[in-house]
């Protein structure tokens, strides 16, 4: 029996990529995982990489968990509320929320000649709006709707998938500022949640072999990269840790968590990013 048997998780933006990997990592440990995304199994593709919430849910179940796919566009607050309410109504609890859904990446495949952009003033303002609307705001809204159940339980974990772009000046203004906001959100949420036994963390993956990255593999050094499922194993380890509150409000890094908790990637490797398991 997995370490998360009986636990209920909600992973947003899980049709593919990191979100899907997180759902699978939780499924490995026996969790019930509600996965959201805009792509239904029989609907139009929302990106040129395939994937749907039902496909992810089926794979979660095949790994030993219970996967439930829910089509949701998280720019719609009412729909987000309905998803959270459904989880609680059907399961009676909500132990883990992983805010992974994000926006603003569309320029990588929608025909935008982004390689000609040279400075934030040459980028469309709509990219900022996507990063903050589909990303930062969606993380906040989902957490707002999930927190009351966790507070009433006296336990729970909120994970915001973030990036070390928050610490860099060359990651693009929109992206860097949005990820910095995500991290600050976690710190402030953790302050409010701590006395209720609920933790909130920001998770920094390394270079992840998502569908988009593999499509452009010739431009990356993948020698120390991580599979999406490795990120899921990091989240699963945090969720199973009875002392996870010690990380609350912090940034945690997937590779460092692998070293601390002793899990490996799907190929048996342990990606080796430097630094401590968390930073203040």
Automatic annotation (TrEMBL):
PROSITE patterns listed in its UniProt record: ADH_SHORT
Protein origin, superkingdom: Bacteria
Cross-referenced InterPro entries: NAD(P)-bd_dom_sf, Sc_DH/Rdtase_CS, SDR_fam
Family the UniProt entry places it in: Belongs to the short-chain dehydrogenases/reductases (SDR) family.
PANTHER family per UniProt: DEHYDROGENASE/REDUCTASE SDR FAMILY MEMBER 1, DEHYDROGENASE_REDUCTASE SDR FAMILY MEMBER 1
Protein name as annotated: Short-chain dehydrogenase/reductase SDR
